[in-house]
Design a protein that fits this description.
heterodimer, A: about 475 residues, 6-stranded antiparallel β-sheet, about 35% strand, B: about 475 residues, alpha+beta, PmbA/TldD fold, 2 domains, 5-stranded mixed beta barrel, 9 helices, globular
């Protein structure tokens, strides 16, 4: 558990926030104003954010920011047409002008015969992801934690860079058929890179609860690995057994998420086209989308206010189910799963709360079981090379280590990989329990560490 | 707006700020897309707010708000000062700013047709017609089109007395055809991938693109790629089309010259740079025909990196980055200029919006035109591969090793394009690659490409950058590695 300090100040991150009833009042004002226009149906999203982020480099704070914002986004429906307009001005004249802008956009297009009426009232399962201590963390609190991390770096002859952030967000979704959905959450994140000469390593965590992680432990871990990363030697590219820490797994498998969209399959841009129901991955791979998982975050409803459902996407290596917005569900004669984006859009839906099944191994056990392989801390700049075979390219970063005869024996220069995710998920030999992982390429998910055989590294860089 | 700025600056100084600058920004955006003959996104967004950056106790603080009342602005400014004082709890040195004059000015980017004044039926009809043209081609399974328009007003004021208003009009437009057959997805985009071309222009940008003529061409190519030969794996001669070269410049020149990266300020996220300070004026970055500038002036063109003043109140400038192949300059700001011996910022501080801190950004980082006619370049190439339109891009966090793939390739034999190649890719080490450049096409083939989606900073900011380029040739390049499976 964390040693994060008690807040020195009741931070402005918390005190600027509006009560939920005020968001409802703004949304109701829009619905009232829309009644005197040509809008036949109206949907209103009111979103408020208050975030703060302290950024450090060269063992000192160099950027330190805070923001507050509120937006009102209005979708109107008229004569079989729909469009959206958004503003951050909440006086009555501005709201009226935004309604008119939405109507004007809607009128400019041909009628859409497939447009559905907006949904009516829904029932939602409650989730509690608002932690007062997270919201209350002040700039001084963040600076104290950063100073301790930087002092540790100085003591070890290292250089620290990173961020410590916290914030809160809330949203209300209201429509003219009586739907009302509201959600709020807090978020916090600490990320640190420790550099020793030309070597570096990294650690990161995030949570709704700032006490769920300890910045000083993360700093210490990054520092120890940075020290191990010095004197990296060059190995030849080729196929290696790899032990991917959870952040590396996350940033790779995160690129699969949109492939489970029913709209992506209908558009024939998913790697799952003609592969549903087949043994695509190894039998040790199971994936669900589950916003209610205790390590997940996010609202329990989608962009139209449909309650999110837990969906088993992959069961023991076989893609079993897709997720559906209301429109995609209607086209496929299925039930919507509560994963739609706010309308209008061309992408349909996506699972935003992926949870991978885990195993009973650990990074330590994976290392101990490996005769020759590579331990990967983190991946970087991952991009899709082949959308159907799901070949991804990218680099290792901030700590690549050689494993020989069950032990880490030294640091290795970073590699470029070109690796099919489909092939990779067939080659998983061991999994750790799944944890909430934070990377840089994908949004946070619950994933295990993985030991994967025959991972393809194609080139090596200079460090 | 100036009253809000003055209110913010006065409050910051009263609270102890030694320096402050404030931006009120009003952003308007309109997005139109179609997919498979139906309207997709149809939306507009308006946002107005204020951000203030202050220097207090020798350290920085920044706060922003959309509560544009006297009290809301004063509270925001006071908060920025308190944040700066918190920053000072973990500082190692005092921030020192390069001197800069105060400016009082107003500037508007030139445009002929205001896209916000054009009836929406006009652009939608064009997008739907281009979409229909692509769908006419057998084998095309997905068609997409898009337009994006932005109008940005910013009012900048600083405690040294600057008052600068700027209005920028930005337009973007593109189309794409995708074909899924067998076990393969192939795609072609026009005039560029990932949203097409973007520039500091009005609707005249859309008029210049001739979507209707190009829609069937890319649709035919997307379908034909399935039966094209696989790009071979080899070391060979590479010709890059101008838009792909623009992205090559962005990744392997534009990012490594950002002085904040060089100084370690981005070490945790965007990365650092191989261009350590000892490389300046020493490194042979490229062959002697390569000249690269960072030019934010309107004289350079109407790019996404064009402005009159940066978001730190420094006038737009042209900086030599590579001159006759030698590394000559970084992108700097008022805080870092002195570290490379400059007495003035090079004017590259840019912010995405009122709620983000300005950071060092590319402006228009462009490869200056060479001397070749395009037809002569092809005719002069005995054995090579031409690659066009980016498909994927990746580079390490110090900007040495890169890999790109493109949508389409063409084999060149005996000075002629002889056949289409699918899945082209190439990779290399930045300085080795640029030193292998032996031909650059002339001004008539040069385009100032817009990259609208450059991500950097924490919290992340997305910025538009410009990259002028004309087709160019490179030798001894590793080709085809992305699809190698050894």
């Amino acid at each position: 558990m964390s040693s994060a300090p008690k807040s020195k100040k009741a931070s402005a991150v918390a005190c600027e926030f509006l009560p939920e009833r005020e968001l409802r009042r703004i949304a109701d004002a829009v619905l009232r104003l829309a009644k005197s226009t040509a809008a036949e149906e109206t949907e209103v999203h009111v979103d408020e954010v208050a975030n703060a982020l302290t950024r450090f480099a060269n063992n000192a704070i160099h950027q330190n920011v805070a923001e507050h914002g509120l937006t009102v986004s209005i979708r109107t429906v008229t004569d079989g047409r729909t469009a959206r307009a958004t503003t951050n001005r909440i006086d009555e004249d501005s709201l009226r002008a935004t309604i008119e802008a939405s109507l004007s956009l809607a009128h400019s297009q041909p009628k859409n015969p497939r447009l559905l009426p907006i949904p009516g009232k829904q029932r939602y399962r409650r989730v509690n992801r608002f932690i007062k201590q997270t919201a209350a963390l002040s700039a001084e609190d963040r600076a104290d934690a950063v100073r301790c991390a930087c002092d540790l770096a100085v003591k070890k002859g290292q250089v620290a860079a990173g961020i410590f952030s916290n914030g809160q967000s809330q949203s209300a979704l209201v429509n003219s058929r009586g739907l009302f959905a509201a959600y709020r959450e807090t978020h916090s994140e600490f990320s640190i890179t420790m550099q020793e000469g030309s070597a570096a390593s990294w650690a990161k965590a995030n949570s709704a609860n700032v006490r769920a992680f300890d910045p000083q432990k993360l700093a210490a871990r990054a520092g120890e690995k940075a020290h191990l990363a010095v004197n990296a030697r060059e190995l030849a590219p080729g196929r290696y057994t790899v032990i991917l820490e959870p952040a590396a797994v996350l940033d790779l498998v995160g690129f699969l998420f949109y492939d489970f969209s029913a709209t992506a399959l209908a558009d024939k841009r998913s790697c799952l086209n003609e592969r549903m129901g087949k043994q695509l991955f190894g039998q040790n791979i199971s994936i669900t989308d589950d916003v209610y998982h205790p390590l997940q975050q996010g609202a329990p409803f989608d962009g139209e206010g449909v309650p999110r459902q837990r969906v088993v996407l992959v069961d023991r290596g076989i893609p079993r189910n897709l997720i559906y917005s209301r429109a995609a569900a209607k086209a496929a004669h299925k039930q919507p799963t509560g994963h739609g984006f706010a309308l209008p859009n061309e992408y349909g839906e996506a699972p935003m709360n992926l949870v991978f099944g885990g195993g009973d191994s650990s990074v330590e056990k994976m290392v101990a079981s490996t005769e020759r392989g590579l331990l990967v801390t983190r991946l970087w700049y991952i991009r899709e090379v082949d959308p159907y075979e799901k070949v991804m390219t990218g680099m290792t970063r901030d700590g690549l280590f050689l494993v020989e005869n069950g032990q880490v024996t030294g640091a290795v220069r970073n590699f470029r990989f070109n690796q099919s995710l489909i092939e990779m998920l067939k080659n998983v030999e061991l999994l750790s329990p799944a944890v909430r992982a934070a990377g840089e390429e994908a949004f946070e998910m619950v994933v295990p560490a993985m030991k994967v055989r025959a991972f393809h590294f194609s080139e090596v860089t200079k460090f | 707006m100036w009253d809000l700025c003055t209110n913010a600056l006065d409050t910051a100084q009263l609270r102890g700020a030694a320096y402050a600058d404030v931006r009120v920004m009003h952003l308007r955006q309109r997005d139109l897309t179609t997919k498979n003959g139906q309207v997709g996104t149809l939306s507009q967004n308006e946002s107005i707010g204020l951000g203030i950056r202050v220097l207090a106790d020798g350290a920085w603080g920044f706060a922003s708000t959309d509560r544009l009342t006297r009290d809301g602005v004063a509270a925001c400014a006071a908060r920025a000062v308190s944040i700066a004082k918190a920053s000072a709890l973990a500082k190692r040195s005092e921030v020192v700013l390069a001197p800069e004059q105060a400016y009082i000015d107003s500037w508007q980017s030139p445009f002929r047709k205001d896209p916000f004044e054009i009836p929406l039926e006009t652009p939608l009809a064009l997008l739907l017609a281009a979409d229909a043209e692509m769908r006419r081609v057998k084998g095309v399974t997905l068609t997409e089109t898009d337009m994006q328009f932005r109008k940005i007003d910013s009012w900048f004021a600083s405690s040294i007395g600057s008052r600068i208003h700027q209005r920028k009009m930005i337009s973007g437009c593109g189309i794409a055809a995708t074909s899924f057959q067998g076990q393969e997805i192939q795609k072609r985009s026009y005039p560029n991938s990932f949203g097409g071309q973007h520039a500091l222009q009005g609707y005249e940008l859309v008029d210049s693109l001739d979507l209707m003529r190009n829609a069937p061409i890319i649709a035919e190519e997307a379908a034909a790629l399935h039966s094209a030969s696989q790009c071979p794996e080899k070391i060979g001669t590479l010709i890059l089309g101008a838009s792909q070269l623009g992205l090559q410049i962005h990744e392997s020149i534009g990012h490594p010259i950002e002085l904040d990266r060089v100084l370690g300020q981005e070490a945790n996220f965007a990365g650092t740079s191989f261009l350590t300070l000892d490389q300046l004026n020493q490194l042979q970055y490229a062959s002697s025909i390569v000249n690269v500038v960072a030019d934010a002036r309107l004289d350079h063109g109407q790019g996404l990196g064009t402005f009159a003043y940066d978001d730190e109140g420094v006038p737009a400038q042209c900086t030599d980055i590579i001159k006759a192949g030698k590394f000559r300059g970084y992108l700097s700001n008022r805080e870092t200029a002195h570290l490379v011996g400059l007495d003035r910022s090079s004017g590259t501080m840019r912010t995405e919006s009122w709620n983000r801190l300005p950071i060092i950004r590319m402006t228009n980082v462009s490869l200056l035109p060479g001397t070749w006619d395009y037809d002569d370049l092809i005719a002069d190439t005995n054995d090579g591969i031409l690659m066009e339109t980016n498909r994927s891009w990746s580079i390490d966090d110090r900007r040495y090793q890169f890999q790109f793939s493109t949508e389409i390739g063409w084999e060149i034999k005996g000075g002629q394009k002889v056949r289409m190649l699918k899945n082209p890719s190439y990779s290399g080490i930045t300085t080795e690659f640029w030193n292998s450049c032996d031909a650059i096409c002339k001004l008539g083939h040069w385009t100032l490409w817009g990259t609208p989606n450059c991500g950097k900073g924490q919290p992340m900011q997305t910025m538009g950058t410009g990259h002028g380029a004309s087709p160019a040739r490179f030798h001894n390049v590793r080709i085809g590695t992305a699809f190698s499976n050894q």
